[in-house]
Amino acid sequence: MSVAQLARRLAKLTPAEHGFAWFDPHITAGHGKGPLDGMIIPAKDLNDVAGMPTSLGNSARRTVAQTTDPFIQNLIDRGAIIAGKTQTSELGMTAYCEPVGMPAPENPLFPGHTPGGSSGGAAVAVARALVDAAHASDGGGSIRVPAAACGLVGFKPAHDSRGGNPATQGFITRDVATQARLYALQPRRRVLRIGVLADPIHAPAAVHGAFLDTVEEVARLFEKAGHEVVSVPLPYGPWAFEAYTEVLMMKSAAIAQPGSALVKWLVASGRGLSAEQRATCIAGFDSVREHVLEAWDIDVLLSPTLAFSPPAIGYFSSLSPEQDFLAQTHWTPWATLFNMTGGAAISVPVNGVGIHLGAIRADNADILGLAAALEEAQR
């Protein structure tokens, strides 16, 4: 699809339907040549693209960027066309997508419901086949959650999480092959030891029965394909997610003029942490990988991505900030594990359910290979 064709399609949709925060129908220059030549990839509205507005999920924060973030520049240098920005929650701080002062994107599969977040606009644009891939980022599931909510593939590559660093960048696509192309990776096929965990890790959520059935079905498929499949227990107690929460609060402390109630709560909570508490939460966060390796003798963890279907737009934000944060954790009680360990993780749709595959003793190529095999098994 050309930029002109995309412009015509966007003109027939509302902002809530297309998920774009901003679009430039005239962009033609400034892009390199390479393996992504001509591929339109919108940037998430947390990342700067020179000459485009960046709102950070709040219209009051909007400024025109003078430079381009390195991750986006790399896409440009490889031939991609960055024709616009997609909606996100304020500063990317929630697992849903309700930007302040701008339309909340709507889930194409569940009208009136959230597409997930914080990369909600990216998921909407891909789910409506407006683009083949959209840039996204993930500090607690923000690639994989909207992918699962919208029936897509969301891949968080392995990253260095040490020092309390939960976030990295990636993409939402409709298939695994596009992910492999974007990363210039050849998915690896090898026999893996796969642990199955349907019990929520970070909150006592009630998991939808169909989601549990789908995990069992996928486990049988992997076993039939020759993988070793075993059940695994919870890897740690409440302390780990408490450490993650305090790291998130700590990183929020410097935010000026927060707009949403949840971000205001995170900012206030972060500013209330003592130096000792900050050091303790980072140490706890960084120790999660070691605890997981001790608890599980597996290569990959298999679980649902979400505990239940996407709630209505406004559901989370109608709650008090503390209840909002807890409700989000009930909805997505597995993904954040891999923001703490730094392991690669992917959500792949199976029978309308997001299936989560996370690397414990595996790498990016292993996870893409296992996800590709799961796609093939459904054909």
Explain the layout of strands and helices.
Elements: H1 3-11, H2 15-18, E1 20-23, E2 43-44, E3 53-54, E4 63-64, H3 70-77, E5 84-86, H4 120-127, E6 133-138, H5 144-149, E7 153-156, E8 168-173, H6 176-183, E9 193-196, H7 209-224, E10 228-231, H8 239-252, H9 261-271, H10 275-295, E11 300-304, H11 321-331, H12 337-341, E12 345-350, E13 353-359, H13 364-377
Parallel strand pairs: 2-5, 9-10, 9-11
Antiparallel strand pairs: 1-5, 3-4, 6-8, 7-8, 7-12, 11-13, 12-13
Helix pairs in contact: 6-13, 8-9, 8-10, 9-11
Mean pLDDT: 96
Low-confidence stretches: none
Computed over alpha carbons, the radius of gyration is: 19 Å
Q: What is the annotated CATH architecture of the largest domain?
A: Alpha-Beta Complex
Spatially, the strands of the biggest sheet line up as 6-8-7-12-13-11-9-10
Give me the CATH superfamily of the largest domain.
Answer: Amidase signature (AS) domain
Query: Could you say what the CATH topology of the largest domain is called?
Result: Amidase signature (AS) enzymes
What characteristic shape results from the CA principal axes?
Answer: globular
Number of helices: 13
The N- to C-terminal Cα distance equals 26 Å
CATH class of the largest domain: Alpha Beta
How many DSSP-defined strands?
13
Helix content: 25-40%
Domain Amidase: 26-160, 187-351
Catalytic activity: a monocarboxylic acid amide + H2O = a monocarboxylate + NH4(+)
Family: Belongs to the amidase family.
EC number: 3.5.1.4
